[in-house]
Amino acid sequence: MTAANSATPRSASVDARGWGWRHAGRTDWAVARLDLRIDPGERVLLLGASGAGKSTLLHALAGVLGGDDEGEQHGRLLVNGAEPAAARGQAGLLLQDPDSQVILARVGDDVAFGCENLGVPREEIWRRVHEGLEMVGLDVPLDHPTSALSGGQKQRLALAGVLAMRPGLLLLDEPTANLDPDGVTEVRDAVARVLEHSAATFIVIEHRVAVWQDLVNRVIVLDQAGGVLADGRPEDVLENQGERLSTAGVWVPGRGHGLPARRSVAPDAAHGILLRAEGLSIARTKNLEVARDLNLTVLAGSALAVTGPNGAGKSTLALTLAGLLKPSGGRLQASAGFADGAPAAPIAWTSRQLLSRVGTVFQDPEHQFVAGTVRAELGVGPRALGRSGAAVDGRVDVLLQRLRLDHLAGANPFTLSGGEKRRLSVGTVLATQPRLLVLDEPTFGQDFRTWREVVGLLIELIDDGTGVLAVSHDSEFVAAVADREYRLLGTVAGQPAVPR
Amino acid sequence: MSLLTIPVGTRAIFRVNPVAKLAAALVLAGVLMLTIDWVSALVALGCEFVLFFWAGLSARMFLLRTLPVWLAAPMAGLTTLLYGQAAGQVYWTFGLIHVTEGSSELAVATTLRILAIGLPSVVLFVTVDPTDLADGLAQVVRLPSRFVLGGLAGLRLVGLFIEDWRALELARRARGIGDGGAIRRLGSQAFALLVLSIRRGSKLATAMEARGFGAPITRTWARESSFGGREYALVGIGLFVALLAVSVSVATGSWNFVLG
User: Fold this and answer.
1) Which B-chain residues 216-255 have CB contacts (< 8 A) with chain A?
2) Considering only residues 126 to 185 of chain A, which have any Cβ-Cβ distance to chain B shorter than 8 Å?
3) pTM for the complete prediction?
4) Using alpha carbons only, how large is chain B's radius of gyration in Å?
5) A377/A394 Cα distance (integer angstroms)
6) pLDDT of amino acid B3
7) From the CA of B167, how many Å to the nearest CA of chain A?
8) What ipTM is given for this predicted complex?
9) How far is A188 from chain B (nearest CA, A)?
10) Does residue B110 carry a pLDDT above 70?
11) Do B171 and A99 touch (CB under 8 A)?
């Protein structure tokens, strides 16, 4: 029991010898010919283009890749000299999606879950639960419902659960990609505190290098073609490989996005108004009002960013302006030119009438996929408008090329990578050329490459006269795209939209 | 969502192991299911209404949660009244409908029986915390822990599914396929929800495995689930009510064995 009782767990080494993994049913190897040695106690930032197999490697080290029916392995991968799957609990893995990592209904029970599975005695479990929660700074009662936690708190909860298992190898797979800026800071600070008190070997995957740069002493870049592309001290690798990493989707600190600035056209307010909200109240579901007395206008050829803290009603506002949710009070009216023969209130428009007027890109692209292939997905809108087969094909071909999805035309939308899904979800909306685009966190969880593409596309569209309304936590996105910012403050009414 | 929230309190019933609540409800239902007569049901119902004072529910919550039972019982009774086995004096006929002395007696018995079985089941389960139930099923009943914990973790996804469903609905309107054809749309939307739920399920499974779930180690339990005096008392009360109902029913000659 001495090992279990000591506050600092022994740290683990990692050895990969010609290791590779191919998921069942795929022709390409997710990871190939990997030779690597990580010594106990090293702190590693793992980089590489999307599809280079970073997640696969971390899952393998945690022993959760599955058996022979899940895929095929060559070479050897060892944690402390043993197969990872045979030494459960030696490696602790924190995943990207906060929602899918909460296992039990109460905070204390959730942290205890891992210890129970490892057969830790009861008194020792609760000691570790308290210690874990304290370490990540989650100061809530043990019976606090996990469903009431914010994204950042959920990630810290999961981290506490991992720490309670006393892993010698701490693995973080994009732990902050799905968090707002406050959540990112929360989680990063919690990890920093943990590393101060722990000797555990540490590996983190993250596109946003700046977040973790100070906490690591080694950067390893995986090559998409197999093996290691670069390996060394953070400063050296980022200096030598900056250009290459940047094109591979990594956010290298100190490098701009290199996109053209928005052409600043002063929108002619008299002609440019698409929507006008006066004393608008919004509700997510009936009786659940989230904000009231909102006054704002949405203009053509201009971008309005909706910002504010979690739970202030940003998404609800966007969905209401997009004609998808019914306002719970006040007025929301489309200008005569925008309504174009349809009723003035967007919620009264038919689903078909919406198509050529408002295009909505949902936060989770998977919610808006309705077809079996990428090509069919892009054709759904034009077809619903009754366009001819040839016209639909023409439009779809243009979009496939523009969004670099042509090689995936026959693929099922659900099988795409995160970045591809995002591009497709934007494409489905552009297919019917709506005059207003409403986007909910369009850059959430995206790597630099997809970010650049989405932002570049939006800038083009706005300059061509499309109105854009975007909910975003991403300050760089807001800086690159938005003309005005509308800040929701939580319980009170929003601020007047201010020019940036 | 309010149906998923569990009231908390300090009364004794909240500390009773959910397994005992399950057992008490099963004993009562099992015995009352053996007969169709109004006497046994009425006796059980009478006892239950006294016991409900200790059930840990306010009158408002009691009515709210048991509303479905109050609605279902008379509906079943009405059906029995109109279509039940004809016997004795005929009061009214219309097509297939025969309201007779026998069918009206059966109708009353059915209504009371559904109340006598349904009300205590609902009342006992309103105060059950799923986590405690899972602890009990695994530690007291000794069901396989993988099965019990998998189910428990899956339960947490229900809230996410409700949100998914709402988003899918909005997205279909946004995609231009929200007009008309409600039934066809419902079908495709249900399929989309199924796809999403499988993905959520497999992600959750990975998260659980990452925390050592399924490791070949004997699991320990952070929360002890015990079965003692309080639990035996509750099951005893259930048994007592059931036996009292049967005794009175037999003594008054109204026992009507279902299979007899």
Assistant:
1) 217-224
2) 126, 129, 146-147, 158, 161-162, 165
3) 0.84
4) 23
5) 14
6) 46
7) 6
8) 0.85
9) 20
10) yes
11) no
